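INFO  loader      accepted 1 record
INFO  loader      residues=325
INFO  predictor   begin
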Amino acid sequence: MVRIGIISLAHMHAYSYASAVNRLPNARLVGIYDENPERGKKGAAQFETQFFQDPEELLENVDAVIICSENSFHRKWTELAAKHGKDILCEKPIATTVEDAQAMIKACEEAQVRLQIAFPVRFSTPIMRVKAMLDEGAIGELLAVRGTNRGQMPGGWFIDKELAGGGAVLDHTVHVVDVVRWFTGKEVVSVYAEVDTLLHDVDIDDCGMLCLELEGGIPFTQDPSWSRPKSFHTWGDVTLELVGTKGTIYVDAMAQSLTAYHDGAGKMVTQPYTEDMDLALIADFVDMVETGRSPSITGFDGLQAMAVGLAAYESAKRGQPVLLR
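INFO  predictor   done
INFO  writer      dumping tokens
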């Protein structure tokens, strides 16, 4: 039985991850620590676990930890967990600076603990099927990629640059970049971006357009935005179109679902009928801890995806492309 702790419920995915831990037969949610005691105690009661006043006390009683704090605190909690010798699943983006991400990776390597990054889209059934098709050469040589990740404006600390590190561009670019790196085995080598605030009255970016280049000169465009209304039936879309010499694949990670009219929520809601990607992510993490294997999604994967988002801001500031290699 793998004993899991959660540090911070700041990120909304923490609730889905806590639920997933409770659903797994080989894992137990030992407790939750949150710097906001009211939120932490309420969450602990919801998931029938213990609230810990002290993060170190929590770490002394678990085998592994899930970090769902504000982005800028990921380094602090990762280094503390590594000091206690605990395997880590860290919410994306890995950090808000390259320096912090590299420090997190180094701390885990020195402590000989494993760091996995929470990119649940890899566990979407449609995305996994496309990965298998690409591995079989279904579309031949890759010529171009187009991606989107357009979701709702989350508010709260997500629109505080000090805590989040960036707005929609950082928040939504990392998911798609990670999937494309996984699909292709290729790195992004240059980034040209337009970044703006056009949709909401916030002091952070809520939309952008990225023109990227993958190794081998492959063009890759990405539309990350908070352009969906509050009443939208899901948190985003996450679509990809891959053009090759033998054909084209279009995939929507959220498309395999039922849409229900939910009077309690006051809107339509989407209920996936495929694999629950958050549950699959947590099951994969627990299996990693239990078996001692390497992470499916490494700290380096998190660093590479984050670097693209940060380069987009630098490109928009300069008005010219930014080279990553």
